[in-house]
Amino acid sequence: MEISANNKRIAKNTLMLYIRMAFIMLVNLYTSRVILHALGVDDFGLYNIVGGVVVLFSFINNAMITSVQRFLNYELGRNNIEGAKKIFSASITIHIAVALLFVLLAESIGLWFLNNYINIPFGRESAANWVYQFTIITTVVNIIRAPYNSTIIAYEKMSFYAYISIIEAALRLGIVFLIYLFLDRLIAYSALVTAVAVAVLVMYVIYCRIKFPICKYKFEYNKKVYLPLVNFSGWSLFGAAANVGANQGINIVLNMFFGVTVNAAMGIAHQVNAALYQFVSNFQTAFNPQIIKSYAAGDKDYFFNLILNTSRYSFYLLFLLAFPVVLCCNEIIRLWLGEIPLHSVEFCRLIIVFSLIDALQGPLWVSVQATGNIRNYQILMSVLILSNLPVTYFILKLIPIPELALVVRVMINVVTSVARIVYLKNLCDFPVKKYLSYVLLKSLFVSIISLPIPIFFYIMIENELLKLVLTIILCIVLTLFSIYCFGINKAEKIFVKEFLRKKFHLI
Fold first, then answer.
1. Is the dihedral of CA 273, 278, 281, 287 positive or negative?
2. What's 118's DSSP letter?
3. pTM for the whole thing?
4. Residue 145 in contact with residue 168, Cβ under 8 Å?
5. Alpha-carbon span 180 to 69, nearest angstrom
6. Which spans in 212-259 are helix H?
7. Which of 42, 196, 227 is nearest to 119 (CA)?
């Protein structure tokens, strides 16, 4: 395996995913505000709640995407093109079946729920049903698109993935201005969103059929192909359901004890955390295909090195972004919202700590996925993750402090991380000692070295704007310094020097 070529591909793919993310974030920030103005508060809320009903039924699709990517990566890692063709065709068939099941549920239970339980403003019942039907079509299109999306990522063609996402975001931006031409802007917006989804699906299909030999659909029922895909998807869905259950369950528990004000603070914390974690998520997406392919090829050394490096780099990347946010959380939220909702700062800080632990663990989950043996793993992880609910309820019953809900999540995440490492050791002889010394200790040392000086200046400076600007600069500079001096090895330092010399004529 040509490791240097793979590393270059990973670096290029990471860059393309960051460009994609930056553009989409900017467009989304702008369009959200303009759409709210164009539709009005009532229609904007109606669009979101009606779309939310449909999202409940499309939950299974996320598990299917994970499964298809894993099996395609595995077959491509073995250079088994015929096997990859069968996986692709089977995934198309399964996704069509999922889409039909989704339509059946959405047009029966979903439609009944919409018209009987959703609080629709008077006179907008017809519009709500039109929005619902367009949203169903959009969801079906996205379900059918999933195998093509998985194929592009499996082949590591992140440049096309980035370009098509940028085109999609640009088309959605165009919709914002087009809806002013229509009498009923809500229905027009829903129809145009559907049109964009169809157009993007057509572009995906054309590109994949031209570029990838495996993207030629042929119906062929083979239990040896279908059953592993469905089985893997089922256990992936089980694990995903546990995560969603823990997140939503904690929100419900908080609501039971403290009311909607605390839920609003939690919502703000989740928004801040999601914006930060997108960087790590995109970074890991670029590495994941290589992790699975290296396992399939039997290259254990490269497989373990990828896991260790991805874990370490993921933590560094998130810590670089998260440290100034955690330290200046008061100032950032006040600048963003104009005021600081009660509990929002503490929630933000705790949930970011939770995510820093998760950043170290993401590649470990992909390594389990690479083996294909996920049943016992998902059962173990799901039990641990869902234990958040009874433990949180019990703690809040004894000590009614909202922040303790996230303290419990952080502590259980630590326990889950230990269990994951032990499980991997037994599953594939994972190098635990190397992980502890090469990843955890280095990450901890980088964090400790970076902390004192920014914290000192944050405490000493009184002017809020000066404090925010100077603290952010110090956090970034000192974190980069700590990573370079203590977080990377000699070969990586040489790579950094060469990169700076070539790109910026430095060092």
1. negative
2. S
3. 0.78
4. no
5. 40
6. 223-258
7. 42
Say how far apart CA 272 and CA 455 lie, in whole Å.
Answer: 21
Quote the CA–CA distance of 32 and 34 in Å, as a whole number. Answer: 6
Tokens describing residue 320: 């670089």
Q: SS3 for 234?
A: helix
Other Cβ atoms closer than 10 A to 289 = 25
Between CA 321 and CA 283 the distance in angstroms is 13
Residue entry with tokens 């922040």:
403
As a whole number of angstroms, the distance between CA 77 and CA 80 comes to 8
Q: Which residue pairs from 248-254 have beta carbons closer than 8 angstroms and sit at least 24 positions apart in sequence?
A: 249/386, 249/388, 249/389, 250/388, 250/389, 250/392, 250/405, 250/409, 253/389, 253/392, 253/393, 253/396, 253/405, 254/396, 254/402, 254/405
Q: What is the DSSP string of 295-307?
A: HHTT-HHHHHHHH
Rg of the chain taking only CA atoms, in angstroms: 24
Q: Map tokens 């079509």 to a residue.
A: 137
Token output for 94: 């399964």
Q: How far apart are CA 287 and CA 308, in angstroms?
A: 11
HSE at residue 242, side-chain half, CA atoms within 13 A, is: 17
Query: Cβ(65)–Cβ(149) under 8 Å?
Result: yes
Q: How many CB atoms lie within 10 A of CB 444?
A: 11
Instruction: State the Cα–Cα distance between residues 24 and 166, nearest whole angstrom.
Output: 7
- The sign of the dihedral angle between the CA atoms of 326, 330, 334, 335 is negative
pLDDT in tens, the chain (507 residues): 455 556 566 666 666 766 777 777 677 667 766 777 788 877 877 777 776 555 555 556 667 777 888 888 888 888 888 888 999 999 999 889 888 988 998 899 888 988 887 777 888 889 989 999 998 999 899 889 889 988 888 887 877 877 888 888 889 888 888 988 888 888 999 999 999 999 999 999 999 999 998 988 888 888 888 888 888 888 887 887 788 778 778 888 888 888 767 877 887 787 788 777 877 777 777 778 888 888 888 888 889 999 999 999 889 988 998 999 999 998 888 887 777 888 889 999 999 999 999 999 888 988 888 888 888 999 999 999 999 999 999 999 999 999 999 999 999 999 999 999 999 999 888 999 999 999 999 999 999 999 999 999 999 988 888 999 999 999 999 999 999 999 988 888 887 888 777 766 655
